[in-house]
């Protein structure tokens, strides 16, 4: 596990959000994928897509329907609400018309990129700061008790507490990359990766 590459990813995401980019890419590794999915789960990213050097098509914009079509579906569901839930594999609900878009992923692993959609709220980036906790020269291992103190805004083993609103800290454990509060609930410890707010 290379923390040098993670430091590059942290600074890249922080700079991309300050530059108001809607979509950015990072190199693919197992740790980067787990961290990106954790960031999406916590609400810092809007989308995580595996692709190549070219950005993927904006499938969310293509999937939107006309307002007239939405009104027809709303009236139909008001009369027959059971149509919103699929009964079998062949029947599809009128609202859940999932469109599968083919994304070209190169066979060469060096050309694969992880495309991340950044989020903004009231013209401000949701992900403002992303800072590495463990360094390549000093890795910080935390127990679940240490993480409990950190989530309650207290300092523990050279790591300051989570004091900013909405601040998260990601920890790599034997169960994958988890947020610090999840680690406290599951009573697992691990190496502190980065903090985001």
UniProtKB/TrEMBL annotation:
One GO cellular component, as annotated: ribosome
Swiss-Prot/TrEMBL GO biological process terms: translation
One GO MF term attached to the UniProt entry: structural constituent of ribosome
Family note: Belongs to the universal ribosomal protein uS8 family.
Protein's name in the database: Ribosomal protein S8
Gene3D superfamilies on file: 3.30.1370.30, 3.30.1490.10
InterPro entries with a match to the protein in the record: Ribosomal_uS8 (IPR000630), Ribosomal_uS8_sf (IPR035987)
Keywords: Ribonucleoprotein, Ribosomal protein
One matching Pfam family: Ribosomal_S8
């Amino acid at each position: 596990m290379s923390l040098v590459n993670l430091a590059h990813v942290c600074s890249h995401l922080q700079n991309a959000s300050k530059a108001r980019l809607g979509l950015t890419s990072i190199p693919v590794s197992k740790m980067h994928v787990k961290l990106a999915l954790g960031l999406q789960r916590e609400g810092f990213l809007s989308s995580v897509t595996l692709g190549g050097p070219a950005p993927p098509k904006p499938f969310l914009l293509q999937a939107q329907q006309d307002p007239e079509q939405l009104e027809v579906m709303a009236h139909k569901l008001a009369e027959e609400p059971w149509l919103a839930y699929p009964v079998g594999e062949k029947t599809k609900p009128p609202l859940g018309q999932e469109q599968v878009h083919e994304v070209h992923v190169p066979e060469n692993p060096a050309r694969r990129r992880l495309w991340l959609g950044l989020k903004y709220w009231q013209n401000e980036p949701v992900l403002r700061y992303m800072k590495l906790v463990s360094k390549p020269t000093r890795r910080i291992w935390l127990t679940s008790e240490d993480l409990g103190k950190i989530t309650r805004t207290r300092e523990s083993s050279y790591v300051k507490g989570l004091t900013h609103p909405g601040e998260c800290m990601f920890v790599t454990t034997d169960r994958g990359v988890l947020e610090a509060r999840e680690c406290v609930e599951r009573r697992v410890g691990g190496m502190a990766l980065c903090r985001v707010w």
